[in-house]
Write a structure and sequence with these properties.
Structural class: alpha+beta
Number of domains: 2
Distance between the termini: 6 Å
Order of helices and strands: EHHEEEEEEEEHEHHHHHHHHH
Radius of gyration: 21 Å
CATH superfamily of the largest domain: Regulatory protein AraC
Largest sheet: 6 strands, antiparallel
Oligomer: single chain
CATH topology of the largest domain: Jelly Rolls
CATH class of the largest domain: Mainly Beta
CATH architecture of the largest domain: Sandwich
Shape: globular
């Protein structure tokens, strides 16, 4: 089975790989000897993204999936990664590989980081190779800190820039390891998480914003504001995205007709559904099915 594998070159990507001698050249300090960034990047809609590391990686790898889907394998165990999840693979010599979902390639922010004693660091923070993906609400704070780290390194590798970026790294990691302690409003985040779970379980139904807001006795405008702040999308846009994501799976893996898929997702009018699909995916459901059928047939050769 032959698969298309693309390593880099995603439109809009950001990527910095720090030369190995950089930290040696600036000397050692307590800041830089504990943990420090080795690679940092952002890959939007990373179609065919794939990495295989047969000898493992000496860095910790943290990947935050903002949209789309992906997967990773380590110790012959496979994990599926959904939007709104992150995972860490600690420094290891074990073989690993990871990549984007074929139907809905992920959009990811990621960081590789290393240090003087990664085994002790990971043991202290209970970072294990078997942790699996973890759910996290829209991590706005983490993304802000990621930008600060990237911007600092983009300005060059002076001691000040390195110190700035690597001091931010601690805070960046804490937004993932201790999300409930980053800010007030934990109850609001739980509400948004519960709403998303509810949406996922009722993709065949039709709702309006008032239906979601009413579950928490909130006005539609107030609920929408909270939801957008937490996820970056309005409640209805998010619900539609989830429906289209589900339809991609059905188009790729079943022989259901477009009108049947439309009906299964709560749309009586298949033409309306097709317009929504094209708006989000950039092609019609028929084109999407044909494109992925050709790709699937090519891989079966």
């Amino acid at each position: 089975m032959k698969k298309i594998k693309v390593r880099d070159g995603f439109e809009g990507q950001k990527l910095i790989s720090l030369p190995g001698m950089i930290y040696k050249n600036v000397g050692t300090s307590n800041v830089l000897s504990q943990i420090f960034i080795t690679h940092i990047g952002y890959f939007p809609k990373a179609s065919h993204h794939f990495r295989e590391r047969r000898k493992g990686c000496e860095d910790n790898i943290l990947i935050y999936c903002l949209q789309g889907k992906g997967w990773y394998e380590v110790e012959d165990k496979r994990y599926e990664v959904e939007p709104g999840q992150f995972f860490q693979i600690p420094a290891t010599t074990k073989a690993m590989k990871y990549g984007a979902d074929e139907a809905l390639p992920w959009t990811i922010f990621w960081v590789h980081y290393s240090g003087a004693n990664m085994d002790a660091f990971n043991a202290t923070l209970n970072i294990s190779i078997n942790d699996g993906p973890k759910d996290i609400p829209y991590n706005e704070k983490g993304l802000q800190i990621w930008k600060e780290m990237y911007n600092a390194l983009e300005m060059g590798y002076s001691r000040d820039n390195l110190n700035n970026a690597n001091m931010c790294l601690y805070h960046f990691l804490s937004t993932f390891l201790y999300p409930s302690q980053q800010a007030a409003g934990t109850e609001e985040k739980d509400m948004i998480r519960e709403t998303i779970v509810f949406m996922k379980g009722h993709l065949e139904e039709r709702f309006i914003v008032e239906d979601f807001a009413g579950r928490y006795q909130l006005s539609a405008s107030h609920f929408s504001s909270l939801f957008r702040h937490s996820t970056g999308s309005s409640p209805m846009d998010y619900f539609i995205q989830m429906k289209v994501q589900k339809s991609c799976t059905m188009l790729y893996g079943s022989s259901l007709k477009i009108k049947e898929i439309s009906s299964n997702l709560g749309y009586d009018d298949p033409y309306y559904f097709s317009r929504l699909f094209k708006k989000l995916m950039g092609m019609s459901p028929e084109q999407y099915r044909l494109t992925n059928r050709v790709y699937k047939n090519r891989n079966s050769i």
